Amino acid sequence: MSNAYSDGDSGPRVEPVADRVRDTSWSANLERPVHREDRSILIEQAIEAIEHTAAGSHVNLVTHSDHGHPSRYLYARLDERFGETITYGYIQQCGCGGYVTKVRVRRER
Fold it and tell me: Nearest Cα to 43, choosing from 8, 75, 5?
């Protein structure tokens, strides 16, 4: 885990995107100011959200509009980390400008 959760001089304090494993479909808000300011935190928390989603469920990753379409920076990272244990697809661009990607967890990692 990076320093995204630290209180010290190493970086800002960022609240976790998930506090437990969810066995129902849910949405992860990755549109907060910290996500706009630091794409690495957005990516880290997208991975965290997937790790907190039970097999057979899905999470909607709602990413900040300032980074553009998630296929440009996020999808390759998801492939590297999760391989074929997930499937994902672009759903829509929100009215506020953010992008929604639906990630279904197919099996345990």
Answer: 75
CATH class name, domain 19-105: alpha beta
Per-residue pLDDT tens digits for 23-42? 989 999 999 999 999 999 99
**Plot region of 68 (φ>0 → left; ψ -120 to 50 → alpha; else → beta):** left
Rounded to whole angstroms, the Cα distance separating 42 from 35 reads: 5
Distance CA 94, CA 31 (A): 11
Q: What is the pLDDT of residues 45-79, one digit of tens each?
A: 999 999 999 999 999 999 999 999 999 999 999 99
Tokens of 23: 């066995």
Q: What is the domain partition of the chain in residue ranges?
A: 19-105
If we measure between CA atoms, which residue out of 6, 8, 26, 30 comes closest to residue 17? 30
The rounded distance, in Å, linking the Cα atoms of 54 and 108 is 8
